[in-house]
Amino acid sequence: MGKQGTQAHLVWDWNGTLLDDIGAVIAATNAAFAELGLEQITLERYRELYCVPVPRFYERLMGRLPTNDEWLVMDAAFHKHYWTRAETCGLAEGAAELLTRRQSAGLTQSLLSLAPHEHLVPIVRRHGIEERFVRVDGRIGTSTAGKAEHMVRHLAQLAGVRAEHVVVIGDAADDAVAAAHVGAKAVLYTGGSHSRASLESVGVPVVDSLQEAVEVAEELVAG
Q: Which of 10-19, 115-124, 138-147 has the highest mean pLDDT?
């Protein structure tokens, strides 16, 4: 732990970080690909190629950017299949206990996701963890861009939280990009959308458990 006043404020990612949903993501991605007759993707290949904006991820797979019509078909298919499967996804190992322990210790944390806000809040609530966060923000609107501008708005709403005390914990390179955009730090977790190799190329700490992520986050701020 850092000295009093220098503990980290954690900004948690949701999909692939707190929510163990990578299986649902792969199934929904393959359902979207099937709409256009594309080859099915394995978890390993997904983690190797995934990036945001999502159309660029599809470009890596298709060899070209999808047309607007193709994008609309794939995006609709993905969300239809994903949200059906997301209902049965559990939290990542130890996530609920970690969140409770931090809150009980008087430490602050918030949740920022690119999942649509109207879908995010009900599912967080169903998992019984909404009150663990001082703020929960999902994506508003239809932008396919990354998390950086959402992070600006999120931090602006966190009264008294300084960017240098913020550590973003996520499963994607984009989480680190968003953290750097606001002057915060980041720790990346291997349980979600990226392979360890692709995460390690980002240049921030990479961990294999959320417990380790929290420990490293505190060290980053205390150090």
A: 10-19
Going by C-alpha positions, the residue among 44, 128, 116 that lies closest to residue 91 is 128
Its pTM stands at: 0.92
Q: What is the pLDDT of residues 144-177, one digit of tens each?
A: 678 999 999 999 999 889 999 999 999 999 999 9
Considering only CA atoms, which of 125, 120, 184, 173 is closest in space to residue 151?
A: 184
Is the distance from CB of 52 to CB of 144 less than 8 angstroms? yes
Give the residue among 36, 94, 57 at the shortest CA–CA distance from 193. Answer: 57
Plot region of 141 (φ>0 → left; ψ -120 to 50 → alpha; else → beta): left
Concatenate the DSSP letters of all residues of the chain into one string: --STT-PPEEEE-TBTTTB--HHHHHHHHHHHHHHTTPPP--HHHHHHH--SSHHHHHHHHHSSPPPHHHHHHHHHHHHHHHHHHHTTPPBPTTHHHHHHHHHHTT--EEEEEEEEHHHHHHHHHHTT-GGG-S-EEEE-SS--S-SHHHHHHHHHTSTT--GGGEEEEESSHHHHHHHHHTT-EEEEETTSSS-HHHHHTTSS-EESSHHHHHHHHHHHHH-
Over the stretch 191-216, which tens digit does the pLDDT of each residue have?
999 999 999 999 999 999 999 999 99
* CA–CA distance, 31 with 82 (Å, rounded to integer): 9
